[in-house]
Design brief:
The protein is α/β, with parallel strands linked by helices and 72 residues long. It has one domain: NAD(P)-binding Rossmann-like Domain (Rossmann fold, 3-Layer(aba) Sandwich), CATH 3.40.50.720. Helices cover 44% and strands 21% of the residues. A three-stranded parallel beta sheet has the order 1-2-3, covered by helices on one side. Strand 2, helix 3 and strand 3 form a beta-alpha-beta unit.
Length: 72
């Protein structure tokens, strides 16, 4: 885990599916290791909950509601 912390600390990490499940867990883990997660998911309300949880723990996160399955 310490090697991961050195690699993630201070880096921006894009996480899709960040509103629940594995994506949410990954977002929280990245923030815990002082990375900056960019949270992407379809459900804006849940995405904001994850961002608030990270921010309340002293981290920073950017919530970007989007559906990556839809072609532009």
């Amino acid at each position: 885990m310490k090697a991961m912390a050195r690699e993630i600390r201070g880096r921006t990490v894009l996480i899709t599916g960040a509103s629940s499940g594995i994506g949410r867990a990954m977002a929280l883990a990245v923030a815990a290791e002082r990375g900056r997660p960019v949270l992407v998911a379809r459900r804006a309300d849940r995405l904001e909950q994850v961002a608030r949880a990270i921010e309340s723990g002293g981290g920073a996160a950017l919530a970007c509601p989007a559906d990556v399955t839809v072609r532009a």
